[in-house]
Specification:
Length: 210
């Protein structure tokens, strides 16, 4: 269940209302549903505004947190972010992909989207990728996410620092699409294997409790 102050992507809003993203865009463009755009041109909808819209039109709300595959791409170069987004879609066309163009926007989106995978550029103005990764892994609500780093300045020291921040694997730029697809596939398998193990452990603990 989402929190009242959360900010949703178009895809999240669509999942919450059980409609298509195209319908959400129509509601926004007609002025019925308030929304704003990030500097990169991506629509964001406040959860409280969406709930008010649903009440006004007598529509039922759903739950935006599902087992759908979700990926957050963080890169201050929009062309690179869009390229990575397309590669994710090649791996799984049903995956929800959100884009953040700086570390601060990433912090907001990772909390609301709760992605299984974050693909993160390490060198960005302001809040760099190392710090973003560290914050993701230190937050109990987002720590399960697998963070894949990308950088045009790869070195053994950078890889070690990234791992120390909680990063899973560091790749080089320019993006090797084949390699990235393999890593994304492996990350999804690792994530769901971990989640399945945690769920099984919870069920066993519940069964054994008096």
């Amino acid at each position: 269940m989402t929190e009242p102050n959360e900010v949703l992507t178009t895809f999240q809003a669509a999942a919450y209302c059980k409609v298509s993203p195209f319908t959400i865009r129509n509601w926004v463009e007609s002025g019925k549903l308030p929304a704003y755009k990030t500097p990169g041109g991506h629509r964001r909808i406040r959860k409280e505004d969406l709930d008010e819209f649903l009440r006004k039109y007598g529509m039922p709300a759903g739950d935006s947190n599902t087992d759908r595959k979700k990926v957050l791409v963080v890169d201050d170069e929009e062309t690179v972010a869009n390229l990575i987004s397309r590669i994710v879609k090649d791996v799984d066309g049903e995956a929800e992909v959100a884009i953040a163009l700086d570390g601060f926007e990433a912090g907001t989106l990772v909390t609301s989207l709760k992605p299984q995978i974050v693909i993160l550029d390490l060198i960005m103005p302001g809040l760099d990728g190392f710090e973003v990764c560290k914050r993701i892994k230190e937050n109990s609500n987002t720590s399960a996410a697998i963070v894949i780093g990308v950088t045009g300045y790869y070195s053994a020291e950078a890889a070690e620092k990234f791992a120390g921040s909680g990063g899973w694997q560091l790749l080089t730029k320019p993006i090797d699409a084949v390699k990235l697809k393999q890593v994304i596939g492996g990350a999804f398998r690792t994530y769901w294997s971990s989640v399945s193990g945690n769920r099984a452990g919870s069920r066993q603990a519940a069964a054994e409790s008096p």
